[in-house]
Amino acid sequence: MADWQNVITGRSKKDLMHSVERAVSAGELEPGQAFPSVRVLARHLGVSASTVVAAIAELRQRGVIVTNDRRGSTIAPVPPLKLDVTPRPAPSARPPGVDLSHGGPDRALLPTLRSTLHAVAEENDIPRLYGQAMIDSDLRNLTLPQFHDLGIDVAPDHVGVTSGALDLIERALLVSCRPGDRIIVEDPGYPDLFDLLRAMGLQAVPVRVDDEGLRPDGVREAMQRGAAALIHTPSAQNPFGAGLTDERAGELARVLAEWPDLVVLEDHHLSLVEPARSTLAGKVRRWAVARSVAKSLGPDLRLAIVAADPHLFARVLGRHALGPGWVSHVLQRTVVHALTDQSIRRQLKHARDTYDARRLALLGELRRKRIEAHGATGLNVWIPVADEGRAALDLAHRGWAVSPGGGYRKTCPPGLRVTTSTLDVSETPRLADDIFHALQPRAARRG
Predict the structure, then answer these.
(1) What pLDDT does 82 receive?
(2) Among 63, 242, 251, 377, who pairs with 179 as Cys (CB 3.0-4.6 Å)?
């Protein structure tokens, strides 16, 4: 890390900006490094304070620096670039043992889409051209009642489609926030969301969750420190398994009523298998909801049906129309045929029942051993531990691959994430017994 006095140069706004960007690219100014104050930098360069102010404003807009009212400006976090595209090994190529670390659905419970894809192919004898509606009318008509069932009073023309839930979240943040803004996230929460916020130059503000969702006292405290948006998962929360209740939604809505400009974004990532029981959408002024189909119908179906308040919907989907334009109507028609296929609907219900049975079986066994565990909904169980690295290693030696919680948490205590979506119910007693032994202090095990 170089001294800023040696790398920040220039007497015009443009030259000053370029010197900072070059230094950041070269690693001479590092993420989190303090940026000099306007007065200090102006005196060092021999330029007016207004020139420095204009350069800092432009650098902030570009996401090169972030500003906190109390701490001043710092070099923004480096966007994470996931360059390792090596695919996960096939099940037969994995190390011996049971993989409960993947976090995803059971492939055996994903619907077979052969007949669905055949029906879509039959429809596409005549190629589609430009100028079509953004969302397929049948898809809108199928999903609109599901928003209404949650109590979301949304008009048909405020329902659209994006390429998954994170696509909606990114677009909503782009039109609602500026680099350096603070975003409330769940703790423990989803690592890919944390990475996305870092890439956008936004600051994640962690708020603890319990079995019913975000804790209202934590949200209030975070809002008092300032936040532009809140992102949460109302059901099948990963990794904790929280499920938003009507009571908790009401408590959170009363807290957020004090900050009407906050944008609330909801990620219903398992919506077809694990529908949310409640929502914040419609209980706050600015909101958007994404109901993804990927984990229910298959990860390659990158599609989410979205709804939002009129203002946010116009900004998000308007920007979408100027970029990719629309989500493939082939994908949309695939989802339509899947949702109207009675066989697939039965498969989805079977998947939900199976996921519930596997998760509840493990929770029951852990409860009998008086081990604290959480997993009110979804595909995962979260187990608080004293030393997640040691516990995960111990379980690996016993034939179980689980995820240490470090990548999922910000400030909450350590834990393990155990994916139950592929867990054989008959194996839950042995797994619970092995978890019990893995959590024992070393001295107790030696004794």
Answers:
(1) 55
(2) 63
